[in-house]
Each structure stands twice: as C-alpha cells, then as structure tokens.
Amino acid sequence: MAIFNNHTIFSSWRCADCDAEKPTWASINLAVLLCSDCASIHRDLGRHISQLASLQKSYWSPYRLDLLLYLYANGSNNVWEYFLTDPSRNDHNNQKHFIKPKPESAITPTKERFIKEKYVDKKYASRGVDENQNDLDMQLFACVRTCHVETAFRLLIHGANPNYVNYETGETPLHIAVKEGQLKQVELLCIYGANLHFINNKEESAKSICQASGSTDLLTRILEIEFEISDRISWFLCGKMPSHDKNSHFLIPDIVGSQLTDKQRMVIKKYVNQNNELFCSISQDIFDEIERRTNEKIWYGETKERHEKLGSVVNVISSFLPLNPLIPSFRNQRRQKLAKFDTNAFVYLLVCHLKETKRRFYCEDIETSIGRSIKQQLRRSQKSSEKNYSNNDYEDYASVPSPESLSRLSERKFVKRQSPLQNRFGCDTTSNRDVEILQNVVKKQTETINNLSDVIISFSREMKVMQEKIDRVAEENATLQNDLSRLRAHVYMKDTQFASQTNAFNTKNTPSFSPTNGPSSNTSNISNTPPIFNTTYSVQRTIIAPQNSSNTFKGHISPDNDYMHNLEVNEKYVSSQNVQSQMDNSYVNVLSEKRISTRNEKNRPLKDGLSKTKIVRFVDDLTSAIRSLQTELLKPSPFVYPHCEAVNVVVFNILNSVPKSLQRKTVIVLMQKLENSMYKLESICSNPNINVHEASLAAFALALAAKNLFLTCE
C-alpha cells in the first residue's frame, strides 16, 4: 500500500454528486470520486453504504486504485444516475425529473437529500426488467470470466451475491475469476465481501488455485487482502507494513514504558477467550474505527485552511461510527464506544488485537503466547541492564580508583542496579505522582473536548431543523401565492360568465317591449363594460325552473305555485351567503336614514299607468348601477356609497312604477323580494371589511328579483 500523490490525473474529472472540479475523495465500493463537501455526507452514511478514502492522503493499494479509476472512467456514475442522464428513460416511479445539485448548492438539505436518494434508496440507478436473485447470481458467475468489470459492478449494485455457489462444482465467482486470472474482478469481488477461504468440491480455495497457477501478482494481492485488517492496524500504529513475500505476516510494535493493571489483565483475558465469529466482528469494528479516525484527521486538515480563509465554520461531522441497521444493537453500541477510547487506550487495544490475531493465525495456546510475551519483556530488560553494567565495568577498569573511590563506586553501582527495578515496580513515588497529575489533566481536557463536540453537534442539528422549517414556510408561502392567483383567475372567470348572462337578459328582453325593437343606449354601454359578477347562476329571459346540481336553471314558465317555489329556492341560496353587517360608521347612518325615507315613500299612491319601455329602462339603469358598484368593489380601497345610492334610487323608481292594477298577490311578493334584496346588498356594502364574493351574490339576487318582477308584470 502507498500514498497516491499524482494530482494531475484528477484535474479533468468532477465530483460525481455535484460536478465540482478536482475531487479529492473517493468511495471505494460505490466507485465514484467526490469533493470534500459531498464526502462529509458520505461519512455520515456509514461504511456499510459508502467506504470513503482520500485520494491524496489515504493509503491505497495500486490494484485497488487502478480498479477505482477504471470503473469511474468507464461510467460507474452513470449506473447510479441512469434516470438522470436521460430523462426519457423515467419510469412511473421517476416521472418528476430531479435537478442535480451544483457545487455551490447547500450541503443540507439539497446535497444530503440527493445523495441519500442516489445511493441509499437507489432512486436513479438502472434496474433490470424481471431480474430475480437467481438471475443476477448466474449473470455474475458468468461475467467474472471476462474483463467486463463494469458489468459485474452493475450486477453487484443490484444485489448479486459475491458468494454464490454453483452446486455442480461448489465454486464461487471468486474461484472462477482466479482461474481466469482476472485481477480486477478479484479486487471487485473482495470489496463486496467475497470469502477468500471458501473451498470448492475439490477442497481448493482461491488462494490454493492461485498458487497452483503461478500468477505472482494475483497471489500477492490475495495475500494483501487476506491480511488487510492486520496490515491496516500496523500502518496506523507505526507507518509500516509486513513483508508477506518473506512470510512475515504480522508487524507488532512494542509499547514502551506501559504497565498492565489488574483490570486491564482481566479485560485482555476476556478478550482472548472470545470465539472466532465474535472476534471477526470485533476486527471489522476496529478496522472501521481506524478508517473513521484517519478520515476525520485528513478531512479536518483539508478543510480547516479553506474555511479559515473564507471566515466560515467547519462543518460538523460525526464523532463516532454511524448506526448500521444490518447489525444488532449491542454491536452498534460497541462501535460507538470505540470512539471514546483516547489515543493511549486505543493504541494498547490495537496492539493486543494484533497479538491475538497472530496467536489465532498460528493456532498457538494462550499460555504459550502469554509466556512468550513475558519472556520478551524480561529479555529486553536484561539487555538494558547488561548494557548499563558493561559501561560501568569499563569505567571501573579504566579509572583504576583508590580504595576510597571503590567504596563510593560500589554504592553508585548498587543505586544504578536498583533504579531499573524501582522504575519497573513503581517505587518512584515522585514520578508516579507526576504521571497521575498529567493523566488527570489530559482526562479533563478530553472531557471538555467531548462536551464541546456534543454542543456543536446539537447546534448543528438545531440549525438543520430551523433550515427545514424555513424551507417548509417558503414552500407554504409559494403555495398560498399560487392559490391566490388561481382564486383571482376564478373570480375573473365567474365575473365574465355573469356579465354574459346580464347581457343576455337585456338583449333578449328589449325587443318584446321596445317600440323600435332595438337595444337602448344603456344596453349598448353595458355590453362594453368589463365583466364583474362572480356567480354560477344562468339568468335567461324565458327560463324559470328549479335549480339542478350544477346551479343552472332549465325548463319553461311554470304556474304561479311552482314559480313562487323557484323564487323561494333562489332566495334561500342568496340569503345563505349573507353576513351580519356592522353598523358602526357614518355611511351606515346615512343609508339607514335613506331606508326610513323610502319606506314612507312606499305609502304614496302608485301611478295608474305603466309603460313597458320605462320598466326596461329602469332595469337597464339597475344593471349599469350594479356593474359600477362591482367595479368599485374590486379596487383596493373601495368607496361604494355613491354606487349603492344609485342602486337604491333605481330600485325605488321600479317599485313606484308598478301600477295598482297589476299589484296582485304574486307581484306584491316579488316587490317585497326586490326591496329585501336591495337592503341585503346595502347591509353587505356597509361593512367596513367588504366581502367581494358576497356582494356579488347579493347584487345578482337583486338583478334576479328585478327580472322576475318584470316577467310577472308582463
């Protein structure tokens, strides 16, 4: 393994998630290159989703880096963005085209949501048609024979099993790839969890097949993969790797000046007594924790300088391994507790783990292993003592001291011989006290750092929640604006419909009553006025019938009883839309005085004669007055007093124009309805907060009452 420092090869490539230039991170199992912002989101996904590594500062095997660059150059990201590269491929689950984030897009929630949909939900990945698990496994078993690594990568993404077993031969895809000498296929299968030690029906493993074939490069890589965890621990501890070609598979550093306490001895005793399955899971957790600490250090070092120049705050990332839903809860707790180990404790744990791994690999007894470690410690102490003794003896021989100096020298030698034992058994109380003080200081500083990290994480979560609330309020505001626009369009459409109905009322009625059979000047003016009313009624000249489900009138002129029933139905609909008026201003008082005066005028004798042309003219005047009133209502600050007064004057003129000879029971009821409609419109318009829709309904009811009165007096 080595550090890859060739920066020029990435200059032409971009981040797979936001198209940022010069990516500095990579996801090994996803085969994509990433920028630092997107890499922070991949870290929070967990290594069970994305195995993150730095391109310049992490430790890469040349074979693995070659595979990653090969897959990315051959369109590995197109597999994840299959439905984004070509929107015409969208299926019923991806009808809405999602816009890919840009480099300047917000990390949360824009980039975070896109990355989770892309890799966790696989929302944009290509999907095979009617491919079950067995079909995927068989295709992978056949594909590893060839050099088409990108096809095998697509099959593994969709769930193909890298440990699929052919029941005829007992071989897995790894056996086939080793037989065919496909190094990239072997690397890809091992990344996705292929078992190196699985034996076929001939009791051959992938390693034994490779040894028989004589492929040196492939055998070297299989050995590196077999000891990947122990090699990674050795590199983390001392920056060196064992030489597997020299049959040296473990490199365990020595811990200088460390003494085991009784509690630590008990922990190690329990640690070495674990079964192999549990020990393997512990090894995986330790490996993931090493990768987390390494990536955290690299990521902070990479972004700290950039954020300091910009004057911004470094994004908070997880200080422990994210939860993995595929493993039990107790193991997730154990993985998080590994983050609480300080540097010294974690190093000691790694050394103990390396020793236990070596013991299990060589199948040694526990007592033999412990005895060997004790002997090594004694041997090192003896060598240091012999070195001190030899130096002292040489000084004795060279100086040729006097008897007095010999006595002083013997005392000095005794003290020097005694000092290693004192240091070993902790007799130097002064040094032990200093060590305890330093340990307490370090412990307090560590607790302070952990508390600050928790506070920063909580602040980050609160900021995320507030950002989500802001986005939600913005969306609701946009929705309300759209609803308001649609409501205005709906009101305008209904006004247009009612305007056409009132025009039809005038043009159809005028010929039967006008001496010249032509429209009056008022009618022509009304037709040129913009549409105002908002209603769903259809008013026609010769149609008066019960109301159907669509709020339109159809039928013919019915007898008086049915006709009165229809009028009562219409009156109930209009009265249901009325609101209580608030008579609290001067305008209301003026209208009230007008109402009292008009009631007194009702007692005056009516005219004996009636001209139909005059009534038609009154109806035209009423329509014009209502239209002007509605136009004023649509203004931001309406002043409706003159228009409402004009409507009242026209209504009183119509009522006073009805002769006594025509005032039978039906006509009197209609006159009363017309007067009530006038007062209802007046009450609505007197409200300081005028409701345009209710005023339109009241105006329409007034026009309908005038029309019914006109038809009855015909």
UniProtKB/TrEMBL annotation:
ANK repeats lie at residues 169-201. Residues 377-403, 504-529 are annotated as: Disordered. GO terms for molecular function: GTPase activator activity; small GTPase binding; zinc ion binding. GO terms for cellular component: presynapse. Residues 456-490 form a coiled coil. Residues 1-136 form the Arf-GAP domain. One of its GO terms (biological process) is brain development. Residues 509-529 have a biased composition (Low complexity). Keywords: ANK repeat, Coiled coil, Metal-binding, Zinc, Zinc-finger. This is Arf-GAP domain-containing protein.
